[in-house]
Amino acid sequence: MIDSAQTNELIASSDDAHGLSDHEHHDFRVFGLLTFLFSESLMFGGFFATFLVLRGAAAQWPPEETEVELLLPAINTIILVSSSFVIHLGDDAIKKNDVKGMRLWYAVTALMGVVFLGGQLYEYLTLGYGLQTNLFANCFYLTTGFHGLHVLVGVFLILGVLWRSRREGHYSDTQHVGIEMAEIYWHFVDIIWIILFTLIYILALL
Amino acid sequence: MAQAQIPIQSMPPMPPEMPKAWKWYDYFTFNIDHKVIGIQYLVTAFVFYLIGGLMALVMRAELSTPDPDVLDPELYNALLTNHGTIMIFMWIVPAAIGGFGNYLVPLMIGARDMAFPRLNALAFWMVPPAALLLIGSFFFGGAQSGWTAYPPLSEITANTAQSMWILAIVLVGTSSILGAVNFVVTIMKMRVPSMSWDEIPLFCWAMFATSLLALFSTPVLAAGLVLLFFDINFGTAFFKPEEGGDVVLYQHLFWFYSHPAVYLMILPIFGIMSEVIPVHARKPIFGYKAIAYSSMAICFVGLFVWVHHMFTSGTPGWMRLFFTISTLIVAVPTGVKIFSWVATLWGGKIRYTSAMLFAIGLLAMFVFGGLSGVTLGTSSFDIHVHDTYYVVAHFHYVLFGGSVFGIYAGIYHWFPKITGRMYNEPLGIVHFVMTFIGTNLTFLPMHSLGLHGMPRRVAMYDPQFQTLNQLCTFGAFLLGASILPFFINMVWSWINGPEATSNPWNGLTLEWTTDSPPIVENWETLPTVTSGPYEYGMGKTLPYLGINGAEVAEESATS
Question: Based on CB atoms within 10 Å of each CB, which residue in A60, A190, B275, B418 is the most buried?
Answer without folding.
Answer: B275
